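Whether sequence alone determines local backbone shape is best considered at the level of individual chains. The sequence in question and its structure tokens are set out directly beneath this paragraph.

***
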Amino acid sequence: MSDRIRHLAEQIKQLEAEMAKEVQRLRIPLYEIRDNSIRFLNEVRQRHLQQRLGLFSYLRRSKLKHLLTAPVIWLCLLPIMLLDFVVTLYQLICFPVYGIPKVHRRDHVVIDRHHLAYLNIIEKLNCLYCSYFNGVISYVREIAAYSEQYWCPIKHAGHLKSKHSRYAKFVEYGDSEAFQSRREALRTEYEDASIDDIGRR
């Protein structure tokens, strides 16, 4: 990767961090996080409770196609739980051996929508499912990205719609010299990752 591309990638990361801080600053304060718990302002919580749709009303308003397909959606929970377990086991065993930093599951699987008083129990369960499912996919993708950097850090010839967090470091497709000269160095270049649990080098 050229110095110019590396510089641009770093600038993008810094701008994203700045934008996140600015969005947070401009956000209307509806809640605060204290001692790892979310606390809504009293008037906000009261408004949420008033807006909650009761179970009977919720089920009565539900479309038939949603009710009929719900079992299929929930069936997907079994393979995602298995994937979560197997990939976590893979990381726990292999990453310390390779010297790859640990991907923290808590950074990807975030469960907090159950604090929303305007959701009824079915909506909270649905939100729990979506948070877990998408969180596990994000977690697994990051572990796969770290693994790909270690084993085969080569960009694709074709355009990717979505690139993972490590892709910018990879060598260009077809550049055999760069691959041979950079392969071993790339196996240890995780300094920009959240490194607080590095395995053996």
Remarks:
- The beta strands are 31-34, 37-40.
